[in-house]
């Protein structure tokens, strides 16, 4: 155990993820209360839940993160901007926006860059910060590197590996995703400017997973296993 890492430091690395399509209003409320209890960085919610999350978390140090263009990034930029403005008005302090994956794969960097710049400016003007979700399972290294450069050019607060819903068809016909791989985390840290932070999402399910991605320079994760991660940290002597 690294003695310079505290339980609070680990908790403040976590965006507690409340994004599954089947999550009910009761589930969102319970999840926000759990986020508050464990004093994590944020509760990460779908846009319609931002106001409810803000009400629950108002008297805490836990922020509200809203996803935008989620999970496939296909909305028009104007719609993503409207979603961003609406989420911030409802109390979101952080915005996780999915890039237009098709534009990235098609090499239309002018439009990709313009969208990231516009949404980053909108987010900052509302007093919030932006995390740009790449969905690395769909991308090659060159696309990831170029996205890192674009986000660095505009001083985006975070780049993020995945939505957790970027399922790829496998040879057996089933769908799965890799999420935050060590290779991609190292690549993102190498090609982002130092002020751009890295968020790992997808597959970070244990304390050891959290500590592993932290070693790659990750400062935030998206997790549904928040309670088990932090309970294990406490049991292992983090205080």
Question: Would you mind describing this structure in some detail?
Answer:
- This protein is α/β, with parallel strands linked by helices and 239 residues long.
- Helices cover 44% and strands 18% of the residues.
- It is built from ten helices and ten strands.
- It has helices spanning 7-11, 25-38, 50-57, 77-89, 101-105, 109-125, 141-153, 182-191, 207-215, 226-235, and strands at 14-18, 42-45, 63-68, 94-98, 129-133, 158-160, 168-169, 175-176, 197-201, 218-223.
- The strands form two sheets. An eight-stranded parallel barrel has the order 1-2-3-4-5-6-9-10, surrounded by six helices. The chain has a two-stranded antiparallel sheet with strand order 7-8.
- β5, α7 (141-153) and β6 (158-160) form a beta-alpha-beta unit.
- It is globular and about 50 Å long.
- It starts with 6 loop residues before the first helix and ends with a helix.
- The model has no long low-confidence stretch (mean pLDDT 95).
Largest sheet: 8 strands, parallel, barrel
CATH class: Alpha Beta
Average the pLDDT over all residues and give the rounded result: 95
Strand order of the largest sheet: 1-2-3-4-5-6-9-10
Total number of distinct structural domains: 1
Strand tally: 10
> Helix count?
10
What's the quick description here?
This protein has ten helices and ten strands.
Observed structural traits:
TIM Barrel; alpha/beta; 8-stranded parallel beta barrel; 18% strand; two-stranded antiparallel sheet; 10 strands; 239 residues
